[in-house]
């Protein structure tokens, strides 16, 4: 039976009311859900935005020397340091309504669903920039409902707690551009060799198209696909009014120059130094490994790239290519402690063991300046005489004996001065001094000079038999070079996090630890190794490199059966060099025994070639006099050899050398030699004249 019109109308109205009620209920529930979601997002607070970023290391002049990226190149830049063209291009192609939606674009989602239904497959995405950013930060790319729900929650939390500018900046700094490159700055450098703020419209449009599918749209993989994508983006930019039609056409015709500038080669510069920097970041500054590697830090170091190049070249120039000997060098500014150059071995890629910092070796006679500083402070002078002859010393209450040997078993067989003993590196003189001062003295003064390694309280310690690190010795000599102030090796001057905050800055603290007058006297004594006037029973130890030097240096060499050392300095630069074999093999070849000295000379001369010659200036409490180097007395005009030598005021010799003054008989003979009587025939000729 057919229903009446009235009844039909009633049923239709009832249906409409039901649908309206259900729809209204859904809308209310939806709004309650959204309000609840945003309230919860506010309660949970902002999600952390820390993402892996490349840590960059800079030399002292701002040059990039290396990066730590774990295979992913990332740099963080502020939004105002990104080209507006790239920002507009990205919004045009990725999220047109970015500034108006609340994290989700309903129109885009519906459009994507319709497109997918028509194609019976997923052909179009509906994700906004905020959704993609949430995915990049916190999630993977698996297509599961669990991941989608998490993505929605994180999207809401981002929108509820961060501004659109912050979200856009984060997105642009985290999006993947292919080839291990993340973020617009790294991508701009990689593809075009320029900063993100300097991109042209054409470059920006091409770059903005890559994240859709880096394996498909990278110009290095398919330039054709990249250009098609670029044209689409330029068209979208024209539609939304960010560029004109003419600008779009010019950008499409723009000739693009691709660079493909990988940064891996930067690791080639000073790799041992960079390892030392990472060690300081962790152990001295207190940063964890992940922050160091992927914290997006800007680490400003003390490295002088010019000096570093000279140092590395010195090793390859001096050491024979067929030699297996190893070596290390460290150069420091004695005023600041800044490490200006460091070589930890001959080939980092064969062995990353840092011999400049990690290896502990016998320093040989390079330890003697510390011993003689103590001696000068306790009453010795440059003229103090001790006998140099083969000697067996008894110690430990007569229970032990020790017999030091000079190089080639040569001895003065008589008394020599401290000045000459230091220049010739007389071992007997050093051990006598060590035992006279007491065997605790050298160890105590080693600590005063900043040496942390233990110096044994035995007679042989005066000859450098206690193992130390090269960096410790460079630091110890820096105390002398700077006039007696405390100093420590410094690799890092400042660290800035990815947000631009300074999280560390080196502050120099100096304390006087050495007497300035004693320090100057010792500095002048240490120039003696390069002064042939101090030759005696042997030549001064710097004789073999005198022809290579043009500046005034103080220094000391050291030799053991397995180690060769050379440490020398000016008031501006301290350089320590070690050569030897890793496993303690003896150095038997004469040429290999000289490597350390020649590397040091090569480095110092090239490094200081443009510097004004810097000499140590006498302090107020010292006095200089000419002495005879052999006996330490005041020299006279008759002394065949004189050297101007500094003493602590009041300790200079007051007796003149009389060894070379001729006696009366010698004077008569000398006068006769100067004015011999002429033969009779010459006197006769003179009479006729």
| DSSP strand content | 5-15%
What helical percentage do the residues reach? 40-55%
Shape verdict = elongated
Mean pLDDT: 86
CATH third-level topology of the largest domain: Beta-lactamase
How many structural units, i.e. domains? 4
- Work out the radius of gyration: 39 Å
**Cα separation of the termini:** 178 Å
Biggest sheet statistics:
5 strands, mixed
The CATH level-2 architecture of the largest domain is identified as 3-Layer(aba) Sandwich
Structural class: alpha+beta
User: Strand order across the biggest sheet?
Assistant: 2-1-5-14-15
CATH class of the largest domain: Alpha Beta
SS elements, strand count: 20
Task: Say which CATH homologous superfamily of the largest domain is assigned.
Answer: DD-peptidase/beta-lactamase superfamily
Low-pLDDT windows of residues: 119-124, 263-267, 668-674
Number of helices: 24
Organism: Fervidibacillus albus
Main location: membrane
Domain Glycosyl transferase family: 62-237
Family: In the C-terminal section; belongs to the transpeptidase family. In the N-terminal section; belongs to the glycosyltransferase 51 family.
């Amino acid at each position: 039976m057919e229903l009446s019109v009235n009844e039909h109308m009633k049923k239709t109205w009832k249906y409409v009311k039901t649908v309206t009620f259900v729809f209204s209920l859904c809308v209310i529930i939806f709004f309650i859900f959204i309000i609840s979601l945003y309230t919860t997002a506010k309660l949970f607070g902002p999600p952390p935005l820390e993402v892996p970023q490349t840590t960059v290391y800079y030399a002292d002049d701002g040059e990039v020397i290396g990066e730590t990226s774990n295979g992913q190149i990332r740099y963080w830049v502020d939004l105002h340091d990104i080209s507006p063209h790239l920002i507009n291009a990205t919004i045009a192609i990725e999220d047109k309504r970015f500034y108006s939606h609340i994290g989700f674009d309903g129109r885009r989602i519906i459009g994507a669903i319709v497109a997918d239904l028509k194609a019976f497959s997923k052909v179009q995405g509906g994700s906004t920039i905020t959704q993609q950013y949430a995915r990049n930060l916190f999630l993977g790319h698996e297509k599961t409902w669990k991941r989608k729900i998490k993505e929605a929650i994180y999207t809401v939390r981002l929108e509820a707690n961060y501004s659109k500018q912050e979200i856009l900046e984060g997105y642009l700094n985290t999006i993947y551009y292919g080839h291990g490159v993340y973020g617009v700055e790294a991508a701009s450098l990689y593809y075009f060799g320029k900063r993100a703020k300097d991109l042209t419209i054409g470059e920006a449009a091409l770059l903005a198209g890559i994240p859709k599918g880096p394996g498909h749209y990278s110009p290095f993989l398919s330039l054709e696909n990249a250009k098609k994508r670029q044209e689409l983006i330029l068209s979208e930019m024209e539609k939304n009014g960010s560029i004109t039609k003419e600008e779009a056409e010019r950008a499409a015709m723009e000739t693009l120059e691709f660079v493909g500038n990988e940064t891996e080669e930067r690791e080639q510069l000073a790799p041992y130094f960079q390892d030392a920097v990472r060690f300081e970041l962790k152990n001295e500054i207190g940063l964890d490994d992940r922050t160091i590697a992927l914290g997006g830090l800007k680490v400003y170091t003390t490295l002088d790239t010019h000096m570093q190049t000279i140092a590395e070249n010195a090793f390859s120039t001096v050491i024979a290519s067929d030699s297996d000997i190893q070596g290390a060098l460290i150069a420091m500014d004695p005023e600041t402690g800044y490490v200006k150059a460091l070589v930890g071995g001959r080939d980092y890629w064969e062995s990353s063991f840092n011999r400049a910092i990690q290896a502990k070796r016998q320093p040989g006679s390079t330890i003697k300046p510390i011993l003689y500083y103590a001696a000068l402070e306790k009453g010795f002078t440059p003229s103090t005489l001790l006998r140099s002859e083969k000697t067996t010393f008894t110690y430990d209450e007569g229970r032990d004996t020790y017999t030091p040997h000079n190089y080639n078993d040569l001895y003065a067989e008589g008394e020599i001065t401290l000045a000459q003993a230091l220049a010739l590196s007389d071992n007997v003189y050093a051990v006598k001094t060590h035992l006279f001062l007491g065997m605790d003295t050298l160890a105590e003064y080693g600590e005063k000079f900043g040496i942390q390694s233990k110096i044994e309280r035995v007679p042989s310690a005066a000859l450098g038999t206690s193992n130390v690190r090269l960096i410790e010795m460079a630091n110890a000599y820096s105390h002398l070079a700077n006039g007696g102030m405390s100093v420590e090796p410094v690799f890092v001057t400042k660290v800035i996090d990815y947000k631009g905050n300074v999280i560390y800055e080196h502050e120099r603290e100096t304390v006087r630890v050495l007497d300035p007058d004693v320090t100057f006297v010792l500095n002048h004594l240490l120039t003696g190794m390069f002064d042939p006037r101090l030759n005696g029973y042997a030549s001064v130890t710097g004789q073999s490199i005198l022809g290579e030097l043009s500046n005034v240096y103080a220094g000391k060499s050291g030799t053991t059966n397995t180690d060769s050392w050379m440490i020398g300095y000016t008031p501006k630069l301290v350089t320590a060099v070690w050569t030897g074999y890793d496993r303690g093999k003896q150095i038997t070849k004469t040429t290999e025994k000289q490597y350390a000295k020649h590397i040091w000379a090569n480095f110092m001369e090239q490094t200081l070639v443009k510097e004004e010659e810097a000499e140590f200036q006498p302090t107020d409490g010292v006095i200089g006099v000419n002495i005879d180097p052999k006996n330490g007395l005041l020299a006279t005009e008759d002394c065949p050899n004189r050297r101007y030598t500094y003493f602590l005021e009041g300790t200079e010799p007051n007796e003149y050398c009389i060894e070379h003054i001729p006696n009366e008989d010698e004077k008569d003979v000398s006068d006769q030699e100067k004015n011999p009587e002429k033969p009779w025939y010459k006197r006769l000729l003179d009479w006729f004249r």
